[in-house]
Amino acid sequence: MDLSIIIINWNSLAYLRECLKSLERNDPGLTWEILVIDNDSHDGADLMVAREFPRVTFIQSVRNLGFSGGNNRAARQAKGDCLLFLNPDTVVEGDALIQLVRALRQFPDAGIAGARLLNTDRTLQTSCVQSLPTIANQVLDCELLRRWFPRSALWGMAVLFSEPPQPVPVEAVSGACLMIKREVFEHIKGFDERYFMYSEDIDLSYRVQQAGFKCYYVPAAALIHHGGGSSKSARSAFSNVMLRESVYRFMRFHRGWWAAGCFRFFIGLSALFRLPVAAALWLLRRGTASKAPVNKWVSIFRWSMGMESWAAKQ
Predict the structure, then answer these.
(1) What DSSP line would sit under 158-226, residue for residue?
(2) Helix 45-52 to helix 13-25 angle, to the nearest 10 degrees?
(3) CA distances (Å), 35 to each of 3, 60, 72, 85, 239, in order?
(4) From the CB of residue 137, how many other CB atoms can be counted at a distance below 10 Å?
(5) pLDDT at site 232
(6) How many whole angstroms separate alpha carbon 114 and alpha carbon 94?
(7) Are 247 and 255 in contact (CB under 8 A)?
(8) What is the pLDDT of residue 240?
(9) d(Cα 170, Cα 153) in Å, to the nearest integer?
(10) N or C: which end of the chain has fewer CB within 10 A?
(11) Strand, helix or coil at 129?
(12) What is the rounded CA–CA span in Å between residue 161 and residue 148?
């Protein structure tokens, strides 16, 4: 079989239905299968899939396995030479799937292929390619700097603005649409299940490259990713802490305890500087501005000081 498409569902019934419809509309002309694994949401997806998409294999997990665990479980049942890990809040367009498969087959050193992701309004979603985490790019990461210096090597997304005519190597691709050769996935033993939420795609991209393969961005493969258009400031305080915790784990696993400790220290220092600014802006615009940025940086600072426990909230 050429391709296995794996989708994790967690309370995403409406998105999942539209995603599966888009896959039906855009048959890649390959031998392929779709596996949906429900991460203990029990939102009726099993009945919907059985009724409307009888060709789809549905797997019900009795507990939330997270992104890594859910994908790994479904991958063990998959039969395809290529595995596509796809978010339920995506809509596949045109020949995107065959473009990704073609890229993996075209380049002998290819391990991963990632698509060009678009927001709901069809604007470019710059998070579809990323740089591997460093202390510098994590501490300096903010929307303003990204807008001012979009081609900076810090963010790893300069390739998005050069409009390459063919697939090009990048440091990491988004897990919203990540295709990998099955042999490579098995060689690196799949997703690292020590991550429960965030950075699983970054970790996978890193380990693929450590194994001697490359990650390719495929500009001809375009998908809509609804969820990716949300503002970073709209995340809950818990999600913001989880995001930093996942990067901390990446640093600890691949850069060592010293780098992880420095990352935590400088993130706390950054939060300490950003918090008064966020508070001042909220006070100036009280009544119209959200307090979310203030809560965000309070939570991140508390996490850096060891007062916000990821493990306790998992």
Answers:
(1) GGGGT--SS-EEESEE-TTEEEEEHHHHHHTTSS-TT-SSSSHHHHHHHHHHHTT-EEEEEEEEEEEES
(2) 20
(3) 11, 11, 12, 10, 27
(4) 18
(5) 43
(6) 15
(7) no
(8) 87
(9) 11
(10) C
(11) strand
(12) 13
pLDDT at residue number 228: 54
- What 3-state class would DSSP assign to 86? strand
Q: Which of 99, 86, 93, 101 is nearest to 120 (CA)?
A: 93
Phi, psi of 118 (to 5 degrees): -120, 145
**Other beta carbons less than 10 A from residue 97's beta carbon:** 28
Which residues of the chain fall short of a pLDDT of 50?
Answer: 229-234, 310-314
What was the pLDDT predicted at 309? 58
Return the CA Rg of the chain.
Answer: 20
Reduced to 3 states (helix: H, G, I; strand: E, B; else coil), residue 300 is helix
> Is residue 249 within 8 Å of 310, Cβ to Cβ?
no
The answer to whether residues 180 and 171 touch, using CB atoms and an 8 Å cutoff, is no
Predicted local confidence at residue 295, as pLDDT: 87
Predicted local confidence at residue 230, as pLDDT: 39
Q: Which helix (H) or strand (E) covers residue 4, if one does?
A: strand 3-9
> Which pLDDT score, from 0 to 100, does residue 235 have?
57
Would you state the pLDDT for residue 224?
96
Q: How far is CA 111 from CA 82, 188, 191, 197, in A?
A: 10, 11, 14, 23
CA triple 280-282-283, angle to 5 deg: 65
| DSSP 8-state assignment for residue 9 | E
Q: Which helix (H) or strand (E) holds 99?
A: helix 96-106
**∠ CA 229-235-239, rounded to 5°:** 125
Amino acid 44 reads G
Angle at 5 (CA atoms; ends 62, 61), nearest 5 degrees: 0
Domains along the sequence of the chain with CATH: 3-229 (3.90.550.10), 235-313 (no CATH)
Stated pTM of the model: 0.91
